[in-house]
Each structure stands twice: as C-alpha cells, then as structure tokens.
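Lab notebook, design round three. We kept the backbone fixed and only want residue identities now. Task for the bench partner: fill in a sequence for the structure below.
Input structure tokens:
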C-alpha cells in the first residue's frame, strides 16, 4: 500500500492519474469495496491536508492545515464518495469490514471527513423524505441500514481519527427512530454516537458548512475538550422522536429504546443541560412502562434514567407519576427507591429482600405524623408490579405479596392510587392456587385457609377505605384510564373485582372467587355503614356485569351454593331496588337463593309397600315400576328416593322371603344408573346402605353355596364388584368414605361369614396401609360449608356430604377390635400381612418411608392381642424384634415395643428371653440392647420380684456402658424399676446398697427430672393405657413431630350410639376420654403477613449493584467489544473436587477472566459444582484440558505472550503483591536469608492452581515462569484453593484494573 509520504511527492497531474486509476479499480469491483483502492483515493483526496494524528496538533495547526487545501485540483471527489456510499449496501452486514472502511475514510484529515459528512447528510435527508413517502421502500431501508452501520463503526474509531459527529448528524439519525425495519440499526448508531461523546478529551469533529459552499470553507471546529459547544450537539430532539413512538414500543422486551434514552439523558446531564421534557407526564409514564415490562437490562437503564433525569431538572417535577424537587430529602428518597428496586426486582437474593422490607415500609408508607410518602403511588405500584411479575421467583413474589397485604390491612399508607395495580398485578399473584392450598389448615373444630382470609381482608380494605374520586390511579397497562377514576360507592373496586373474575374464568383458582366476593361484600357493608349521603347508582350495563357473576359454572356443590349467596348479597348491596328493575338474570338469581333456603335433600318420603297376595312384602311392585318406566323411576332426582324406598322395604322384609334374582335385578339397575352418572354425590352416598343392607348380606350368604346361580345373576359378584369400586372411590371422594365404612361394619356384624365371601381382607389391608384422606381441594368445600352456614344455618357440611372421614376410621377400627370369632383366621392373615414388610426391611432403613403408617402399627397392636396364640408367640417375638432393631423412627419403635410388651404380658413365661439376651448381649447392636432394656421396663410391673431383681442387676451394669444409647436407656429405666420395687415391697431390691446408690445418683441427673420431650422418655403402662383412647390418642402422638389423630374417643361413642345391629363383644375397651389435647387451632391468618416496623430501616445490601458506567456499551473495534475484561486464563486441571471447581468458576466469571480450564468438562454438570458456581458457567468459557496436557498448553500460552504464574509455596515463591526482588530473613533465624522472586502478577497472565492435596506437580512447575504465594500469619499455613484463587485475582485487579 502506498504511503502518505510517497503520495505527497506527486505533482497534481500524477495525483489525478493515480486517483482516477484507483477510482476505476474501486468501481470495477462487482460488489463491495476494494479497500486498497479506497485507501489510495482517500490519501490522494487529502494528501495536502493535515493528517489527524492527535487532536491537539490539529487544533494548533488548523489554520495551516486549511491553507494547504486545494479543492480546485479537479479531482473527482464527489464521484469517489458516491461510489463508496453506493457500495456500502454490500458491506453493511460485516461490522469488521465497515470498521476498516471507516478507518480509511476518516484517518486522513478533516477535509475528507467533512466532504464525506456532507454526502452522508444529503443521502440521509433524501432517504428520510423517501421513507416518509413510501414506508415499504426496501431499497431505501437497506441503504439507510448501510449508512447507519457505517456511522456506527465510524464512532467506534480511536481518538486519532476525525469524526462525523455534529448536531445535524444527530438530528438526521434521530429522525429515523420509529421507521419500521430500522429500529435496531438506529438505536445501535445512536448508542455508538453517545458513547463517543462520553470521551471529552482530544476528539476532533468534522463539521460541514451548508451544502453548496466552496470546499475551502469547510472547517474543523475544535475546543479544548473536543467540541466548540456541547449544547449544540445534544438537545431534546432525541426525546421528541422517542416520544413520538407508539407507546407499545415501551412495553416491548426486545427493543433498545431505553439504552438510547439512558445514554442521551446521561450526556445531557454531563453537559449541564436543563431539559423541560422531564416535566412531562409522558416522560415518566413511558419510563414506568419500562420498569414494569422490561427485561433486566432495560430495567437497569430505566433506573439510570431516573437518576440522571434529576440532574437535568430545571427546578422541580410535578406530574401524577413523579413529584420531585431538588431538595436533599427527595433525592435521598429516590436513591432509596432505586436501590430497593435493584434489591427486590433485579438481584432477588431472598435474605436481602427480606432485610429491605422495613425500609420499603418506611419509604412507601405514611408515618404517624400523617405526612404522605415522597414516592408517588405510580412509582410505588411500579416497583411492586415488577416484583410480582410471574418471571420473578416464587419466594420473592410471596414475600412482597405478603408484605403488601400487611401494608394494606394495617393501613400503612393511602391505597386509593393502587386500585388498578391490585387488579392488574396483585390479584393475578394472590389468586394462584398454591398460595391457598399451602396455607390450608384443617382441624375438627375449624377448617380455614389463612391466605384466603387475608386476601378477603385486603379486598375489604379497598372496598371500604379508598377515596370516591382519587386524582390519579396509575396502571401498568397503557390502555387503562388513569385520571378521573369514579370510585363513588366503591364502584371502581366492585367493577374491578367482577371484571377480574369474569376475565380470568377458567384460569383462576376457583376457591379464590369465594374469598374475593367475601371481602368485597364485607368492605361494601362497612362502607355503607360509614356513608350517610346518597350515592350515585350504577348504570344498567354495569349492573349486568355484576349479575353475570351468577352465571359462572364449574363450582363444587357447596361452593356453587355459596357463590349464589354471595352474588345475591352483592347485588342487594349495589342496588337495593334491583328487584323492581325486573332483569331476567336477577330473577333467576333470586329464585336460586330462595331454593337454597330449603333443605339440601329433596328426596320424597319412603312410600308404603302393599303386601302381595300372600300377605308378604315383595320387590315385585318395584320391579314392575322399573320395567314400565324403562328405568325412569331411578334416574336423576328419583335415584335417592328410590334407594330410600328400597332400604325401608328391606328393613321390613325377612331375608328368607327375598328372591335372590329379584334383588340382583333391582341392585344391578341401581348400580348401572350410578355408574352412568359417574357416582356423583347424590348417587354414591345412597348406594352403600342399600347394597350392604343386612337383608342383602343374609341373602348373599344364603345363596353363596348354591351352584345353580347363573354368573350374570350372582349377587355375590355384584356386591364384591361394588365393594372394590366404592373403596376406590372413597380415596378421592371423601363423602363416600364414612357411609361405606359404616355399611361394611354393619354387614360384617350381621353375618360374619360375609367376611370370607366378599373381599374384606383386601379392603381392610388397603385401608390400613393407605388410609383414605380428604383431598386438599375438597377441604375448600368444608371451608365453604362454614361460610355458607353463616347465611343459611341449615346448610351444613353434613347436610350435603354426610359424616366426615374420621367416622370411617372409627368404623374400621371398631370392626377390627370386635372381629368375629368365627373369622379369626382372616384377622390373623391381616396381622401377618401388616407385619411382613416391617420385618423384611433391608438395611440401611430410611428414617421415614412413604409406605410406613402409624395406623399399621396401631392396628397390629389391636390384632396381636387376640390373634397370637402362645404356640406362635416366639415366632412373632422374633419377627417383631427384627423389625424393632431395624427401625429408627421413635414413634414406630414405641408402638413395636408396646406390641412386644403385650405379648410378654399375655405369656409370662416368655419374659425370661429378655434377661437371657441382656445377660449375653455380645454381638447385639446398641439399639437392640436399648430395646431389651425398654421391654424389661414395660413388663416389670407384671412380673415377679425374681425377674425384676435380675433386670436391676443388668441395668446396674448397663448404666455405665460406654455406648451412649445403652447408657441413656439404662439410666432412664433404673430409677423407675427401683421405684416399682419399693412400691411392691420387694426388700431384696429396695435394700440393696448398690441399687440404692445407683438410684440416688441417677435421680440427681437433670435429664431424669426433666419433662418428657421425646418419645423414648415417655412413660407407658402397657395394660392401663391399652384401650382405644390410649392407642389412638396417646401422648406419644403429640410430642416429637406431632402427628394428627386419625380417630378420637367421641367418634367411637357416636358409632356405638348409632348402631342398628347386635354388636360382638369388644376385645379392647374404649377407655376414658382423654383430657390432654395438644393445640389444634389453625394458623391465624395474620401470621402469614410479612409484618415490618415502619420506623425501622436497615442498611441495604447492594450485592451486584448497578454501576451507571457499566451500562454504557463498549466501543472500539468489533473484534474487541466482546472481549472479557481481564487478560487472565485460569488453569484448574489439577483440581479434582467439583465443589472447588464450581467456586473457582464463580470467582473467574466475577473477575472477568478470559477462560477457565478443567480436567473433565463433565464436572460442570455435577450437582456439587452447580451448588457453588451459581450459574457462572453460563457466562464463562470453560474448556477441557487434561492434566497430562497442561505442560504443553502452558508452553503454547507462553508463545502467545502470556506469562505463566503458579500459586504455590516454594523456596523461590514471591509474596503476592510484592513487586520488588529482594531478600528476607526467615523468622527465628536472622542469619538465614532467602532470595525472593517477584510477587506481582503480569497483565497477560496464565494462572495455575494446584490440586487440593499435592499442589502443583513437578512436571507443571518445570514450565511455569515463576510462583507466588499468599502471605499468612496464623498457624495454618495453607488456604483452600477457592480462597487462594480469589485472593490472587483480586490482587491482579488491584494492580491492572485501574
């Protein structure tokens, strides 16, 4: 390439020939630009102009420079620039090429730059006119993209060049904002333009004169800081074009508007401008949209815009969105606001967010003195709306949502300006199903949803405490009206709730609707009570909207009726005279409400059955009616009355007179009808009492042995099928459970033979192994019943669904404790099936397993008392001991020990096994010995003094056992057994000096006298407590991870009082009603709230806080713009631990390293790696480098200019941070000195870290340039590799990061 010196020696004629030749070459290229030819043309173009080497020299020699220009040398300059600009379209997709072209064009003096600037301005002006006339001009768009890309690259050039940047350029580029297809190109160009202006020192700007003036009048305007007047470059024109954009652009998550806006306002503030646009409401409204809808970077720019906008404020800002004056107080409040926004919305560290809530309360709330918050409702709801965005993690949304509930309920600030926010952002979060289901608590006395109750209170506050005509109600959506919102009589809140429900429809968690309407009604009632003046009525269209709520469908039965009541109450509150308006929807709503005032079950009374000719009752009339009506008599609403009629008939009939075929036909018809209706409640609850009626059971047993019964008419098969299906249904439909279990109990007691005919064994086993429970979603029906009962007292849960599930547990347990003697083999098989999985566990046994249930062991305790014969006792003891030794969960061990103790109690001769095993316990695990001690303690009150003496002798020895578990068990048992001996008068034990001394010693121990807080220290009387109350309501259920009582004393009482069949003798007594119940009250709704002290503020952490300087895009050559900040590579291939590697990944990414090398790339996916990397691997280049290849890699790095530094302690290691070479005296040996290598780190550094144990291997040390070590002063001389790496990288940044 020709040099400037050679070209400068050419005369004018030769210059012209060379110029035209190069121009011809340039034009001859089919596509694109020949950069070599362009370089010659540009050098010849301005060879007599002063080259721009330094802006300062240009400034000093500007006059001389311009005096040497020769615009009349007849060179075709215009043709050159036309060619270049025409060919830019072919090059605009390659930033590297455009950068090189711009470098050529603008590196050879201001004259060429000025002429090029004029040409580009003309082209842009023409394009603006063409595009404004024809928006779909593809050629115009491509040309505009090319010119903008060229300008962008020209702004990236280093300061030794002359720039095409002036007010006219800014005006023309800004004019293209909003042109379809140019958005990204325009914003990228403006971004580069403002990035250029940020650098105030030593910049040279070419400024063309008016088009048409002689070329020699073109001049270069310079000042000491690079521009003659900063104000002449940046003005409000950029905002004018941004403001003209469609408002939808400001809600887009893909645009670059906010970056341009931020850079423009930052430059204006830097230049000391005062802009009037910041006093415009549109300025702040659009900024608000960005804070709510933007992605993370857009939101950061918006926060930067807020901070910078205050610097260009003329005096004060007074708009509905922003109220600000130049006082320090206002500035401090908005500094807090932006910091809180960063903490809550952008960074989202749970601990930091929680710590910031008191400050949030103080900032947004109204203090006790009544002074309003400096933060407007618009800005407050903007922060809250962004925090409740669905993209924010659930824990943060829950924290902020509950904080806001507390803010509203405690009246910490005016909420009139929050009305739109509540329906647009708060309710979409607050009505999510998980919030309701996770806060639902159910006890016998009360079933409540804490979140639902709090939500209802929030809505009530809005309905009651908001102003009639709030001045401004901001919205996060630009389409909603914000001014002059009519909230008289709570109108805006009412319509907001109604529209939210109707718009959400199937997307809303249905129980949430009940709480919204409940809160709305309570709030309106309070508002009406506080209002004395008449209020304007709603329009007919608004009333129609409210009435449309009544048409919502899909609710469960009780919730649907409650919804109808709420709709009726709401309509009466909104318009008391609504009935006189005769609106059809209102009429149907009133009719529905009146219907609800009747009883739930509209079944007709059982009809009287006339006896047949023989004087006996018969099923024939019913069969005839069934046949004649073609089953219409049992369909729909007639099903329940039909079932009741049949039950009444069967009650009056003798089973011997019942025809099996007739009975099968009737029951099959009813079963098929229920199956068709999918066993909905009115059908399912009436089937068990009929199918398992005592008469049906007797007929079933009677015909069980008959071989002449056709398969399709077998009553046994029908009942067995019904039994299995209803049991399956009972697991999901709790309303079937109680009536089904009670019917089966009655059937078993009617004729015990039915237990072996029908699948009772399988059903009882499945019931015990997997007790049916009420589904969480069905609990909302229970809660709805409680609400409905307040309006209509006769509408209780029982009136809809019958008895609760614990009545089913009582029926099953009662069946087991009264198990018929003739079916004892079935009871024993059930016991064996329950015991088998406990015995056959394989170690290690998990502490808790899904299949294990307390009910299994409770039932085993019942069955073992009458199913185990003495001949089988040893086998059962062995199996139970095996299960006990394997089991670690205290509650399960407690019940297993109780079962074993009852076996020893029933068969006293077996108790010697305990003493024998305690005497020869070698080889036993400590848990086994501890269990033997506990068993001895449990049966001691029922054994002889000889047994107890032997037991005391063993306890005395075990009280000093080195095994903690054994020693603690012996220490607990010894005083209790000694006390028993004294009460029994066993002097041999009571007077034994060794026993007396040991008793006195143990009783002095604090742990012995403490109240039992674990199940292991809970005292148990295996005989006195062996009753239903003790087993199912014992204290062992209430301590150490309390467990819900499945069944209670009163359930058995209710069962016995409601029995209509002769009951077998109960083998286990009911016992006395327990008096000590642990607290069962549900969680108070207010406990959910995130309460904060308004007067308490904390120092806010700003982890990863926003640095405004970092928001500005990078400049320079395209190849350098994505370069990592630190010219350091980390080699961690010698490290094996994924936890350490993950931590080093986090450190390397945080300090901006180029890359990190590890031995196995698969470790990046390891859970331990991810636990410490916090996703840093997503932003850092991590490569695989096998340990054996490290020396070769380091040699290659050296050839590329890196210096290889090892972090290792050697005799030549420099102290990290110490740059000079010197000597130091070894501590304690003044005559010994060591030469020290340099301890500083080079700028281009390859940092090698050693393995956790061996450090850097000899092979790697051989190729490192030098080593450094970190000076420590403690006894421990080594650091964890993560810590060492972090310290070293911090030291590199301290040295080179300035």
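Proposed sequence:
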């Amino acid at each position: 390439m020709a040099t400037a010196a050679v070209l400068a020696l050419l005369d004018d004629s030769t210059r012209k020939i060379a110029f035209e030749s190069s121009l011809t070459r340039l034009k001859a290229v089919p596509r694109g630009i020949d950069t070599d030819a362009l370089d010659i043309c540009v050098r010849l173009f301005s060879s007599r102009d002063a080259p721009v080497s330094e802006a300062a020299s240009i400034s000093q020699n500007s006059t001389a420079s311009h005096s040497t220009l020769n615009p009349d040398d007849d060179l075709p300059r215009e043709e050159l620039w036309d060619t270049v600009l025409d060919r830019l379209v072919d090059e605009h997709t390659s930033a590297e090429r455009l950068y090189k072209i711009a470098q050529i064009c603008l590196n050879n003096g201001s004259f060429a730059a000025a002429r090029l600037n004029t040409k580009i301005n003309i082209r842009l002006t023409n394009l603006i006119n063409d595009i404004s006339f024809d928006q779909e001009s593809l050629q115009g768009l491509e040309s505009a993209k090319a010119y903008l890309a060229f300008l962008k690259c020209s702004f990236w050039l280093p300061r030794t060049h002359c720039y095409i940047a002036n007010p006219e350029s800014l005006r023309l580029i800004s004019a293209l904002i909003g042109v379809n297809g140019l958005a990204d190109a325009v914003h990228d160009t403006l971004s580069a333009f403002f990035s250029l202006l940020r650098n105030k020192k030593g910049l040279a700007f070419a400024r063309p004169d008016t088009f048409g003036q002689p070329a020699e009048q073109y001049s270069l305007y310079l000042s000491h800081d690079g521009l003659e007047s900063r104000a002449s470059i940046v003005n409000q024109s950029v905002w004018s074009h941004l403001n003209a954009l469609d408002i939808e652009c400001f809600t887009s998550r893909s645009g670059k508007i906010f970056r341009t806006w931020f850079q423009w306002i930052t430059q204006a503030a830097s230049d000391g401008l005062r802009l009037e646009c910041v006093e415009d409401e549109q300025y702040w409204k659009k900024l608000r949209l960005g804070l709510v809808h933007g992605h993370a970077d857009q939101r950061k720019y918006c926060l930067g815009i807020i901070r910078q906008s205050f610097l260009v404020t003329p005096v004060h800002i007074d708009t509905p969105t922003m109220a600000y004056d130049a006082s320090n107080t206002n500035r401090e409040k908005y500094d807090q606001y932006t910091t809180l926004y960063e903490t809550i919305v952008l960074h989202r560290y749970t601990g930091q967010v929680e710590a910031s809530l008191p400050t949030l309360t103080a900032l947004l709330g109204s203090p006790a003195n009544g002074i309003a918050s400096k933060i407007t409702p618009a800005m407050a709801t903007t922060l809250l709306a962004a925090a409740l965005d669905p993209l924010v993690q659930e824990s943060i949304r829950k924290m902020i949502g509950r904080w806001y509930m507390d803010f509203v309920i405690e009246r910490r600030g005016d909420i009139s300006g929050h009305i739109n926010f509540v329906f647009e952002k708060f309710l979409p979060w607050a009505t999510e199903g998980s919030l309701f289901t996770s806060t639902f608590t159910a006890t016998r006395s009360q079933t409540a949803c804490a979140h639902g109750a709090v939500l209802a209170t929030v809505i009530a506050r809005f309905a009651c405490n908001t102003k009639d005509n709030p001045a401004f109600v901001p919205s996060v959506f630009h389409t909603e009206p914000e001014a002059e919102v009519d909230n008289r009589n709570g109108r805006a809140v009412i319509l907001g709730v109604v529209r939210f429900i109707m718009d959400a429809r199937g997307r809303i968690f249905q129980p949430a609707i009940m709480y919204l309407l409940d809160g709305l009604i309570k709030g309106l009632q309070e508002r009406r009570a506080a209002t004395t003046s008449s209020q304007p009525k709603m329009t007919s269209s608004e009333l129609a909207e409210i009435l449309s709520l009544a048409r919502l469908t899909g609710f469960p039965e009780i919730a649907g009726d409650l919804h109808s009541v709420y709709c009726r109450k709401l309509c009466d509150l909104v318009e008391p005279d609504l009935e006189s308006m005769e609106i059809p929807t209102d009429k149907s709503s009133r009719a529905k409400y009146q219907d609800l005032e009747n009883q739930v079950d509209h079944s007709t009374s059982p009809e009287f059955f006339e006896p047949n000719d023989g004087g006996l009752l018969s099923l024939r009339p019913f069969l005839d009616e069934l046949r004649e009506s073609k089953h219409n008599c049992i369909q729909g609403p007639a099903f329940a009355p039909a079932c009741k009629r049949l039950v009444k008939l069967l009650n009056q009939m003798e089973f011997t007179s019942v025809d099996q075929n007739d009975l099968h036909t009737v029951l099959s018809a009813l079963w098929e009808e229920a199956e068709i209706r999918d066993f909905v409640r009115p059908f399912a609850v009436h089937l068990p009492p009929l199918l398992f009626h005592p008469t049906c059971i007797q007929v079933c047993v009677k015909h069980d042995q008959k071989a002449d019964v056709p398969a399709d008419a077998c009553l046994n098969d029908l009942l067995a099928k019904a039994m299995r299906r209803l049991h399956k249904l009972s697991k999901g439909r709790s309303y079937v459970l109680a009536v089904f279990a009670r019917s089966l109990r009655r059937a078993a007691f009617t004729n015990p033979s039915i237990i072996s005919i029908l699948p009772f064994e399988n059903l009882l086993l499945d019931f015990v192994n997997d007790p049916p429970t009420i589904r969480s979603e069905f609990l909302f029906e229970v809660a709805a019943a409680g609400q409905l009962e307040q309006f209509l007292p006769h509408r209780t849960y029982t009136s809809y669904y019958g008895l609760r599930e614990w009545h089913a547990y009582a029926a099953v347990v009662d069946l087991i404790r009264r198990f018929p003697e003739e079916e004892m083999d079935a009871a024993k098989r059930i016991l064996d099936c329950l015991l088998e999985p406990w015995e056959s566990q394989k170690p290690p046994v998990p502490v808790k397993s899904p299949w294990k249930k307390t009910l299994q062991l409770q039932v085993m305790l019942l069955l073992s008392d009458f199913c185990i014969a003495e001949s089988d006792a040893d086998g059962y003891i062995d199996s139970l001991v095996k299960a006990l030794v394997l089991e670690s969960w205290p509650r399960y061990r407690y019940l297993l020990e109780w079962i074993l103790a009852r076996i020893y109690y029933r068969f006293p001769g077996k108790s010697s096994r305990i003493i024998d095993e305690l005497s020869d316990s070698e080889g036993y695990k400590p848990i086994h010995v501890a269990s033997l001690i506990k068993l001895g303690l449990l049966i001691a009150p029922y054994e002889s003094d000889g047994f107890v003496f032997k037991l005391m002798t063993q306890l005395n020895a075990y009280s000093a056992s080195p095994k903690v578990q054994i020693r603690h068990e012996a220490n607990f048992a010894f005083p209790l057994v000694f006390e028993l001996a004294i009460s029994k008068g066993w002097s041999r034990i009571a007077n034994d000096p060794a026993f007396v001394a040991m008793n006195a010693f143990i009783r002095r121990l604090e742990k012995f006298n403490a109240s039992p807080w674990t199940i292991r220290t809970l005292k148990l009387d295996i005989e006195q407590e062996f009753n239903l109350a003790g087993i199912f309501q014992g204290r062992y259920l209430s301590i150490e991870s309390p467990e819900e009582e499945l069944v209670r004393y009163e359930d058995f009482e209710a069962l016995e009082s409601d029995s209509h069949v002769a009951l077998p003798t109960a083998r286990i007594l009911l016992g006395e009603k327990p008096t000590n119940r642990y607290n069962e009250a549900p969680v108070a709704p207010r406990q959910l709230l995130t309460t904060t002290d308004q007067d308490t503020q904390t120092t806010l952490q700003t982890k990863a806080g926003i640095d405004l300087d970092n928001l500005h895009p990078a400049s320079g050559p395209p190849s350098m713009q994505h370069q990592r900040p630190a010219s350091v590579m980390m080699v961690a291939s010698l490290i094996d631990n994924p936890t350490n590697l993950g931590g080093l990944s986090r450190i390397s990414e945080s300090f901006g390293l180029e890359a990190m090398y590890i031995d196995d790339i698969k470790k990046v996916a390891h859970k331990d790696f991810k636990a410490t990397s916090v996703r840093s691997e997503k932003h850092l280049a991590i490569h695989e480098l096998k340990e054996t290849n490290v020396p070769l890699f380091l040699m290659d790095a050296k050839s590329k200019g890196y210096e290889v530094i090892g972090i290792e302690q050697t005799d030549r290691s420099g102290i990290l941070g110490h740059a000079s070479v010197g000597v130091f005296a070894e501590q304690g040996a003044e005559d010994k000195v060591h030469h020290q290598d340099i301890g500083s780190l080079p700028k281009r550094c390859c940092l090698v870290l050693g393995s956790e144990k061996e450090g850097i291997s000899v092979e790697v040390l051989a190729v490192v340039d030098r080593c450094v070590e970190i000076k420590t002063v403690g006894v421990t001389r080594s650091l964890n590799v993560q810590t060492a790496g972090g310290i070293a990288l911090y030291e590199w940044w301290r040295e080179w990061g300035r």
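Keep this in mind before ordering anything: Residues 48-72, 209-231, 602-615, 1222-1236 have pLDDT under 50 and may be disordered.
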